[in-house]
Design goal:
The complex is a heterodimer of chains A (about 90) and B (about 475).
Chain A: H1 4-13, H2 20-37, H3 72-76, E1 82-83, E2 86-87
Antiparallel strand pairs in A: 1-2
Chain B: H1 2-5, H2 9-17, H3 23-36, E1 42-45, H4 55-58, E2 74-78, H5 105-112, E3 116-121, H6 155-162, E4 168-173, H7 179-185, E5 188-191, E6 211-216, H8 219-227, E7 258-261, H9 275-290, E8 294-297, H10 306-321, H11 339-350, H12 353-366, H13 371-395, E9 398-402, H14 418-422, H15 429-434, E10 438-446, E11 449-456, H16 462-476
Parallel strand pairs in B: 2-3, 2-4, 7-8, 7-9
Antiparallel strand pairs in B: 1-3, 4-6, 5-6, 5-10, 9-11, 10-11
Helix pairs in contact in B: 6-7, 8-16, 10-12, 10-13
Classes of the chains: A mainly alpha (about 90), B alpha/beta (about 475).
Chain lengths: ~90, ~475
Amino acid sequence: MIDRDEVLHVARLARLSLSDEEVARMSGELSHVLEHVERIGELDLEGVAPTSHVVALENVLREDEPRPSLDRDRALEPAPDHSAGAFRVPSPGA
Amino acid sequence: MSELLELTAAQAIERIEARELGADELFDLYRERAAAEELGAFLSVAGRDFPTAGEFEDGSARSAAPEGPLAGLPLAVKDLFCVEGVESTAASRILAGYRPPYTATAVIRLKDAGARVLGKTNMDEFAMGSSNENSGFGPVLNPWDRSRVPGGSSGGSAAAVAAGLAPWAIGTDTGGSIRQPAALCGIVGLKPTYGAISRQGMIAFASSLDQAGPLTRDVADAALLLRHMVGADPCDSTSLGLPEPVRDPTAERLDGLRIGIAPELASGGMEGIEPGVDAVLRSTLETVEELGGRVQEVSLPHSGHGLSAYYVLAPAEASANLARYDGVRYGRRAGDGTLQALYERTRSEGFGPEVKRRIMLGTYALSAGYYDAYYGRAQRVRTLIAEDFRRAFEDVDLVITPTSPTVAFGLGERTQDPLAMYLSDFFTVPMSLAGIPALSLPAGMSEGLPVGVQLAGPAFSENRLLDAAHALEGALAFDSSAARG
């Protein structure tokens, strides 16, 4: 069971602010889904290696040659606010 | 006009190449249908919401003599794919108005082969859903019965193809998002081997699972579209392409082919499977044998745990991938004051309820103290599921299951119960976790609605899969014309 305090803690980690109603609903729904998910607890997983990725590839490298990348102005264009060639946000200290 | 709508994409290309049909005539026919549609399948349409190909540069008419093997055919593109200059939102309000500065590799390849983007299709927000009801821009209606869902998350692509609003479409599949809507709409949907197609320019959901693929009227069209999507891409280091070219499927028989049925992925393994769906699966098995194939039982002992593992792994990856929507680089921004408040308001107002639920679930599963119990365990279950398939494919060539436990369900029927919605993916998720190719083929009807069966094969067995599906398709002779009515 995920209680209200846990929901609020996780929401803070995820940078979501939830209404009281969302917190109450989330607590019930997440608990319900986790109950189902916890069935994997029945399995004996001793000695089983984890799979993070199905493709057996590592360190795909290329020559370190300079080449044109996305134009700065094009990259800034979709931003809600930009200034002097950079994304603009309120001061983190504010 | 209705005669042109009955052409598959491959048939239309033949007519265009023989100069019996103009590429622009066909494009305009579909453009008008897509612009006038009432299913909610399209979020934007060429000519209405963005310029058609060729009009970008000089405002002149479109290409008169289309080049390339796809002959200027219109293509419906799931809104998850970035297309330069065309609004691309993944059906999320947090990306409303976003016009990407680049195009997804899969779309570039198709355009290079001569396809033209007809429109962007509706979907569940960030591909999270099995009914298309999680779209930030309204649901999609199933063309077979407008009171029902088309499935999801590629619901707009599936409905558009089924209803004859597009000759074919591309979608993406993370846990069933191509196959399940294809089944519910009575069309063919293929999720290729993980890595066959570049993910560059696909708006990320769960990166170790996401894979693009075709949604088409028939198996030959699926092979044709797939052929022009696959390939390794330096911009996606997990892309490999396929070891051999995609062939035109020609098989009419299944002689010598061993097809496995697993009790864990049939009526024995799941309570919620509808009798009508089970009946179509059983009669398909009879057809397999009539065509010379051999049906034999295989064991996939851990596949019943696939859904549990998936609903840890996919939300965990999503919670990390969706951290980028912070109101800084693209999309909408809400709130002022502190930076922290800006992040929180932007995300709380921009994301819909299912996306928030998955971010919460994933963040919880990755948080200190729970990581091993959830994420670590789920990764180990994923290993067991992949090993199950590897073992099964020592005895059989392909595995067959239902695609979805039910036919298309009613709009609103499952929106209040997330777990009931998640169970739609019971049969499709194990193949996603194992990274293997799987195809949904319309195989019959139940309660007046289409039923799909799923064929899955070992990694990189796309040609075998397409050939077997082609033989079955010929014998089953599924009639999809009612949906284009």
